[in-house]
Each structure stands twice: as C-alpha cells, then as structure tokens.
Design goal:
The chain is mostly helical and 155 residues long. It has 6 helices and 4 strands. Helix 1 links the parallel strand 1 and strand 2.
Length: 155
C-alpha cells in the first residue's frame, strides 16, 4: 500500500492532491510509515536531500529519461506548458542530473509500465532489507572498512 505525495517541502502541510504542491512534515511521513504504508514523494533534488537528512532510512530514487530529446518530445507532447515553461523544465532537469549521486537508485523511464514495476521491485527489496536482522552489522562493517581504508598507515 502506498500514499503518493507531490511536495516541495516548503511547509508543514501535507496533501495527496497531486494537482497542488505542499510540503510534507516529518510527522506526517512517520504517521504513514507507522500505518504500514510507504510514502512516495515526487520532489526535486533539494527536497530529496532534505528528506534524506531528516529521515536517514529513507530511499531516494531518481527517475531518468532515456535522452534529452525524449524529454523534449514528452514535454512537447503534453502541450501543458508554453515554450518558456518548457525551457525552464529542461534547464532544471539538466541541473538536477548533476546530483544523481545523492540517490540510492536510478531508474530509466523508457516505458511507463516497466518503470512502475521497477519501482515496485525496489520498494520490495528495501522492505526485505529492513527485515534482515543482521543487516545493520553488515552496514557497520562497510562503514568501518571505509574508515580503515582512509587511515591506512604509511609503511
């Protein structure tokens, strides 16, 4: 079960009305998670960064277009924006791609149904990870290994 939100993280109000933009409070996200659901947020790079800082166990998934030409074609096909708005959206996409390393997963949206299934599988994988009792020790070992590699004494 999912609750899908489109957010800009600018306020403490939350709405699942995808026609409007609202911020989503940490309390609201915790309420959703405590009810056994996943909160799927459609947010920009800055919002994803804030969510990752406030909820360390959150998962960030960047959905990519197969090419810039395809993004232009899709935006033009919608006919929901004028040329200036389309140009702004394209420029924003160019800038956001520079932040892909912040994301846990990158998914290419070639076909809608395949993309939705991929997202479902990522969510199932993350739920499985949470149910593994020794996973924190494995994650700690990775952190310790990184620290050890950084501090290898010179011989």
């Amino acid at each position: 079960a999912y609750e899908i939100y489109q957010c800009d993280w600018s306020s403490d109000v939350c709405s699942s009305d995808l026609e409007q933009l609202y911020g989503t409070s940490v309390d609201e996200l915790n309420r959703i998670r405590n009810s056994g659901k996943d909160a799927l947020l459609e947010i920009d790079v800055q919002g994803a960064s804030q969510v990752k800082r406030k909820l360390q166990d959150s998962i960030a998934i960047m959905i990519l277009v197969p090419s810039w030409e395809e993004l232009d074609r899709r935006l033009s096909g919608r006919a929901s924006e004028n040329e200036r708005q389309k140009s702004i959206r394209l420029h924003r996409a160019y800038k956001e791609i520079d932040h892909c390393e912040q994301y846990d997963y990158l998914v290419v949206n070639r076909e809608f149904e395949v993309t939705v299934e991929t997202l479902r599988q990522v969510i199932q994988l993350e739920r499985l990870k949470q149910s593994i009792p020794f996973l924190p020790q494995i994650q700690e070992a990775q952190t310790v290994l990184e620290a050890l590699r950084k501090t290898v004494p010179s011989s």
